[in-house]
């Protein structure tokens, strides 16, 4: 499974603006007319594919849910980074969520 966040070089909790600005930067950098390397076309296609998914809120939500099935493809640091909001919330440390129990 491709990691669209890594392809666009953004965090997993990136804003729409961050996704858009990185897409523009990378698309200009990897455009096949500018780069003559063999992998430029494939890289450019991956960038476009990633942007199509992450720029659409519904597709992004589906991709984020589906990403759970590919969790074995990530190392420990990537898993913790990707699911930090869920981990913090489950441990009672989520922002804006009342504690379920007090010590």
Automatic annotation (TrEMBL):
<dbReference type="Pfam" id="PF00226">
    <property type="entry name" value="DnaJ"/>
</dbReference>
<dbReference type="InterPro" id="IPR036869">
    <property type="entry name" value="J_dom_sf"/>
</dbReference>
<dbReference type="InterPro" id="IPR001623">
    <property type="entry name" value="DnaJ_domain"/>
</dbReference>
<dbReference type="GO" id="GO:0005783">
    <property type="term" value="C:endoplasmic reticulum"/>
</dbReference>
<feature type="domain" description="J">
    <location>
        <begin position="3"/>
        <end position="67"/>
    </location>
</feature>
<protein>
    <recommendedName>
        <fullName>J domain-containing protein</fullName>
    </recommendedName>
</protein>
<dbReference type="GO" id="GO:0005634">
    <property type="term" value="C:nucleus"/>
</dbReference>
């Amino acid at each position: 499974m491709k990691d669209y966040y890594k392809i666009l070089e953004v965090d997993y909790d990136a804003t729409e603006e961050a996704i858009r600005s990185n897409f523009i930067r990378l698309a200009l950098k990897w455009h096949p007319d500018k780069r003559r390397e063999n992998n430029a076309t494939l890289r450019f296609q991956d960038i476009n594919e990633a942007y199509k998914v992450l720029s659409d809120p519904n597709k992004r939500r589906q991709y984020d849910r589906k990403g759970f099935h590919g969790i074995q493809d990530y190392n420990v640091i990537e898993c913790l980074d990707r699911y930090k909001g869920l981990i913090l919330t489950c441990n009672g440390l989520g922002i804006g969520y009342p504690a379920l129990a007090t010590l």
